[in-house]
Amino acid sequence: MSYAAGGDNYYGKYMINSDQIVLSTHDVSTFFHELSHAAHNRIRPLKGGQNPLQEIVAETSAAVLCLIYGYEGYVGHSRDYVASYGKVKPEEATKAVMRAMSDIEKVLEMILSTTKQTESRTA
């Protein structure tokens, strides 16, 4: 992971070819979003660019991780982000999430199980 100050057109990105996360913000939800892309790529190879399903998986996973780790205030933004990529109204974002639920579950399981393994080794 690296930090690139002043990213003009992005807050963060996951680069598939080099398997690297680049952040241009300290916002935790952006880190969780890009981390979710990295985990998703380990479950199934991702397509380059901003694929709607991949964005829905990453953003929903990021929102759940924010809630788990006590970072509040991101769910509304995430709903709007998912609605935008799912091409639905914000109140219908749940449908887009449900279509991606299998991958979301796998991404969260990968991230959380890796976190638990790391915590148990350092305890």
Strand content: 5-15%
Domains, number:
1
Sequence of secondary-structure elements = EEEHHHHH
Q: Tell me the number of helical segments per DSSP (H or I, 4 or more residues long).
A: 5
- The unreliable regions are none
Q: What integer is the average pLDDT?
A: 91
| Extended strand count | 3
User: What's the overall geometry?
Assistant: globular
Quaternary class? single chain
Provide the gyration radius in Å: 14 Å
Largest sheet entry = 3 strands, mixed
Placed side by side, the strands forming the largest sheet appear as 1-3-2
End-to-end span in angstroms? Answer: 24 Å
Instruction: Briefly note the structural class of the backbone.
Output: mainly alpha
Helix content: 55-70%
Task: Provide a compact summary of the structure.
By secondary structure, the chain is mainly alpha-helical.
Provide structural commentary.
By secondary structure, this protein is mostly helical. The protein has one domain. 60% of the residues lie in helices and 8% in strands. The chain contains 5 helices and 3 strands. The protein has a 3-stranded mixed beta sheet with strand order 1-3-2, with helices on one face. A hairpin with a 4-residue loop joins β2 and β3. α1 packs across α2 (52-68) and α2 runs antiparallel to α3 (75-86). The two termini are 24 Å apart.
